Amino acid sequence: MQKQEAEIWQILEMVKDPEIPVLSIIDLGIVRSIKITKPSNNLTGSEVCVAVTPTYSACPAVDMINADIKNALLEAGYKNISIEQVLFPAWTTDWMSASGKEKLKKYGIAAPIGKSCNQTAIEELTVICPQCGSDKTKIISAFGSTACKALFQCNNCLEPFDYFKCH
Amino acid sequence: MTTNEIENPLIKYLLHLADNALIIGHRNSEWCGHGPALEQDIALTNIALDQVGQARNFYQYAASLISDLNGEIITEDSLAYLRDSWDFKNCLLAELPNGDWAQTILKQFIVSVYQYYLYQALAQHENEKLAGIAAKSLKELSYHLRWSSDWVLRLGDGTQESKKRMQDAIAILWSYTKEWTDYVDYELNILGESIIAIQKNCEEKITAVFEEAGLTIPQDIWMHKGGKIGKHTEHLGYILSEMQFLQRAYPNVEW
Ligand SMILES: [Zn+2]
Question: Closest Cα of chain B to A90: distance in Å?
Answer without folding.
Answer: 5
